[in-house]
Amino acid sequence: MRAMSAPAARGQTLAGWVFVAPALSLILLFFFVPVIAGLVLSLTDFDIYAIASPDTARFVGLGNFAAVLTDPVFWIALRNTMFFVLVGGPLTVAVSMAAALLVNSKLARAPAFFRSLYFIPVVTTLVAMAVVWRYLYHPRYGLLNHVLGFVGIGPVDWLGDPRLAMPAIVILSIWKKFGYNMLILLAGLRTIPEELYEAATLDGAGWWASFRNVTLPNLAPTFLFVCVMTMIEQFQLFAEPYVMTQGGPLKSTTSIVLLMYEEGFRWWRMGHAAAIAFVLFVIMLAATMVQLRLQKERAT
Amino acid sequence: MRSLAGVMLAAVVWIGIEGCGASAGEGVTLRFWAMGREGEVVQELVRDFERENPGVRVRVQQIPWSAAHEKFLTAYVGDATPDIAQMGNTWMAEFAALRALEPLGPLLAGSSMAESSYFKGIWDTNVIDGVPLGVPWYVDTRLIFYRRDLFARAGYDSMPDTWDEWRKALLAVKRRAGSAGYALFLPPNEYEPLLVMGLGTGSTFLSENGTRGAFSEPRFRRAFDFYASLYHDSLSPPLRNNEIANIYQEFARGYFAAYITGPWNLGEFASRLPDSLQDSWATAPMPGPDGPATGASLAGGASLVVFRGSRHKAEAWRLVEFLSRPEQQLRFYHLTGDLPARREAWLDTALTRDPRIRAFGEQLTRTVSMPKVPEWELIANRLRDSAERVVRGGEPADSVLAELDRDVSRLLGKRRWLLARGGPGK
């Protein structure tokens, strides 16, 4: 191909920018500008007084960040969120994986029906499901305690006991979300050629061995995607505690996003809430880097 | 192609002109924001107002309570506030700080609504820094709803009016209920009963002109200890009000025999309790720590406010006056069950013949306003969290309340700075 002359190359570059400009300006306007504004907000004590008279907003530097990091409720929220991420995350992925394997299995009857059935919780409204699950979890009239009663376990105060409320929310969350990842993993499973499994069986591999050596390596990109996206979503836990327990009992289900919502939109302490948002951003960024690094090391 | 574009352009311009022209020269339209059931019902009442005031139309916009606070704030920021609105009186301090409400002093001076027409505590909630910013529309307070039969069985024909006697009555009811029930339902996630008890002992909750927490001081401490003792003696189940399946069902079954709640439950109890129990429940004003005169309660309810940004303040005020007439207040009561704010309306037999409502009338004469600081709701929530830590978490009250005072003083830091500077917004 003939090399381009300088003016033609410049013209091409310009044309490139013109084509990208609309999308770029939208991203700038609706993503970068609000994020920068949020950062500036986190450096002030913007609150209800400032909504009335902006001149009462004072620049407090890192004061909000210091207040966030010394607030015991923030650390409780962080602990609750980390529990949700470290326990709920892997469990969600494991259940999704199990469901995908079951639906994909050659022994499965009516896989399309079960695929839809497992996906239904994903498309239901969370608020309606929360009402139903609140009744399921009720210490005196709930179905769950009723069934546990058959095996001799006494009434469990699922949503009222500070130690059990978060696990109860994890269970609800897994039930609600596993169908989505199941579909993604199913798509990934379908791309693995049959011959690999045949070869493994010929070599004398059992189920677990062929899963570890054939399925997982071939599923790696999809699996990484599912893991990273699930982890990010788990960090953003908000709706379930907001609807089920309002952050209680004793703040045991308060997540960072729920804390941020209350600070920002109930109490209008927007500077403080913006600081919480940026702290969460740093934590999530760090966690994602760690996960990507781990996956890369495992692949090599 | 060009002619089609021309026709479309002309059509758009024509529709635009029509739209603009329609509202000009047709009189005044008042925008009235109202919440909940009141918003549904007030539309009937304003029809009569429109008939009396030809040329004035009232457009009622209904807003759910859960979204109302945010909607008002967003409207304020976007300069799109209505002319007149229903506003919960606990929000008055916040909107006063925003200077969103029109001071009503001069308008009240020329009207028939005098301060003496309203319950003192209720009127007080509408006066911020000496300026009246709202007119009470309907009132709300908290008192005891109880199972007369269960208390009678325990030896009490009426609710005692001192804390000591009340405690003895609750213990007697609990003894009779055994392990199957409790005496009083006091959900730890409701802060109102604790505040009510605090008012009874004369607590101010905040000190130094509302800039520091005063939850460790003796008066509030007395109320807090009494409140905590009710759990300690197993008089109340430690269940939050969204953990109990159905309050009315549990009340009917006798799972608890008393509940501190408000006037909306007059209608709810009447409709949801079985007919066999309709004679078995009653209301009683709050007992006081040192006798009935100290049995104070919350001054709640909603007011009618006119926004500073309204362009039709005179007409909006006429609507406020209309809705404040005793006969309109009674009509409103019959439609919603909300207790009227005008004391003249309380002379009507509808309110005097029912002893359950009379108890509310009595309690309303002993209501006190909460501290009028915009941060109050946040502080009340922190108080509730602290109370839950003591009652449910078993932490000692001394350290928890001291920590609460420090936390509250920190939250009020901005207010302190603004007051030192010379007032918010200056």
Write the layout of secondary structure elements.
The complex is a heterodimer of chains A (300) and B (426).
Chain A (H helix, E strand, L loop, with lengths): L5 H37 L5 H5 L10 H8 L1 H33 L6 H13 L2 H11 L6 H8 L14 H26 L3 H9 L4 H29 L3 H6 L11 H11 L3 H30 L1
Helix pairs in contact in A: 1-13, 3-13, 4-5, 4-8, 4-10, 5-8, 8-10, 10-13, 12-13
Chain B lengths: L1 H22 L4 E8 H17 L3 E8 L1 H13 L6 E5 L3 H6 L7 H5 L10 H6 L1 E2 L2 E2 L2 E6 L2 E5 H6 L9 H15 L4 E4 L6 H9 L5 E2 L4 E2 L4 H15 L14 H7 L2 E6 L2 H9 L8 E4 L12 E2 L1 E7 L6 H11 L2 H11 L2 E2 L8 H4 L2 H10 L2 E2 L7 H16 L5 H15 L1 H9 L5
Parallel strand pairs in B: 1-2, 1-3, 8-11, 13-16
Antiparallel strand pairs in B: 3-14, 4-5, 6-14, 6-15, 7-11, 7-12, 9-10
Helix pairs in contact in B: 2-14, 9-10, 17-18
Structural commentary:
The complex is a heterodimer of chains A (300) and B (426). With 300 residues, chain A is an all-alpha fold. Chain A has helices at 6-42, 48-52, 63-70, 72-104, 111-123, 126-136, 143-150, 165-190, 194-202, 207-235, 239-244, 256-266, 270-299. Chain A has 13 helices and no strands. The longest helix of chain A is centred in the first third of the chain and has 37 residues, at 6-42. The two termini of chain A are 38 Å apart. Chain B is α/β, with parallel strands linked by helices. Chain B has helices at residues 2-23, 36-52, 65-77, 92-97, 105-109, 120-125, 148-153, 163-177, 192-200, 218-232, 247-253, 264-272, 313-323, 326-336, 349-352, 355-364, 376-391, 397-411, 413-421, and strands spanning 28-35, 56-63, 84-88, 127-128, 131-132, 135-140, 143-147, 182-185, 206-207, 212-213, 256-261, 281-284, 297-298, 300-306, 339-340, 367-368. In chain B, the strands form five sheets. Chain B has a six-stranded mixed β-sheet. Chain B has a four-stranded mixed β-sheet with strand order 8-11-7-12. In chain B, helix 9 (192-200) packs across helix 10 (218-232). The N and C termini of chain B lie far apart (60 Å). Residues 20-25 of chain B have low confidence and may be disordered. At the A-B interface, helix 2 of A face helix 3, helix 17 and helix 19 of B.
